[in-house]
Amino acid sequence: MSNNNNKHIHILGICGTFMGGIAAIAQSLGYKVTGSDQNVYPPMSTQLEELGIELTQGYDPKQLDPAPDMVVIGNAMSRGNACVEYVLEQGLNYTSGPEWLKNHLLRDSWVLAVAGTHGKTTTASMLAWVLEYAGLRPGFLIGGIVQNFGVSARVSDTPFFVIEADEYDTAFFDKRSKFVHYLPRTLIMNNLEFDHADIFADLNAIQTQFHHLIRTLPGKGKAIYPADDAPIQEVVERGFWSEQETLKGDWDYHLLSADGSQFEVLLHGEVQGVVTWDAIGEHNVKNAMMTIAAARHVGIPVEVSIDALAEFISPKRRMELIGEVAGIRIYDDFAHHPTAIKTTLAGLKAKVGSDEVVAILEPRSNTMKMGVHKQTLLASLEQANKAYLFEPEGLDWSLKAQAQEAGRECDSTIESIIEKVCANAQAGQHILIMSNGGFAGIHQKLLAALQAKFS
Fold first, then answer.
1. Which of 129, 268, 282, 442 is the most exposed place for a label (fewest CB within 10 A)?
2. CATH T-level fold of 105-309
3. Phi-psi region of 268 (alpha: psi -120 to 50; beta: other; left: phi over 0)
4. Which residues belong to the annotated binding site?
């Protein structure tokens, strides 16, 4: 690794989880790493500063003088950005994050990649933990803080590397999905639905990228996916050259508790053992089954995976209990697609039984803003006893009109939502806040308002 010591890489868009993870990995490999972002913000800025990585606020091209050996350009960067224009004008060496990762780390690794519309972060976190528990000490790069490790990325001296394989595009100059660069030997495909309407025209466009991914899997590599997922099945039917195992085919499960906190693991119809763990929801049971199958591909016995899952802690922002006030529990969750919203609510409802579930939702993704999910959004909230929706600026459709039709509350300020939630607050409620962003700090503001009310 010492031959990298004098090499300097500069990362544009360093504060995203993925690019921040690459920064940490590059530093571990001996590179001098610096970077910049429009907004240098926690938690990634804190992680990077603790590593001693120098951060610059904004995109003044002065940060590229003297020229680094390589500029790694994040996929949030586009033409017109001052640094991007400078890189092109001066002929500096540049690459994308996924391409850099492939060339400097993944080529020599046994890569376990987790792809799919939902559950990537959680499943990749489970898989990294199971490998760790089994003594394989994997490296990993995951789009969230893995609670069992306290970080989102690390390098290891073993061949195993777990990566969250995102279908989002690679860079302004490479419109293939990020995961096309990852060279997996073990591939999980959790599920497949239409999402990312800002870059994909339709489901078929996403399926094409998934088939590019399948084409990179070696013959003795293995894909693990649900047999009952029609869009994935269509991808597989386009051509398949590797080994495969399926959920609801080779593998199955039997719920022993309605909330998914206990279930039997079946392989070829034979019970392998029982998982008893802290996660809830049938979607997480499916994530766990995929994890067990993938771990078995690298030689981990099923019973070891079962023991490991008993000690698994869900990633931050995945049904994370962030506070309790006067018998009211407040959770934070990353759910932002109708399917994820529905399954997250179903898991919570199964856990709390007849207790009241209150949902607060920010439709923040580009796909949501474009109105792609407007017909299914309100129906995804049906398990919530009460629901409060936030209508952000820049929505291409009227959320308020849809909410009124469904008999749900909709407001354009978080203060108004907090006021209404507090007015109806009572012991025994479970308040679930769902957003894939910061939601203007509503979590702590609501906690403070409830504390003020009941103190």
1. 268
2. UDP-N-acetylmuramoyl-L-alanine:D-glutamate ligase (3.40.1190)
3. left
4. 116-122
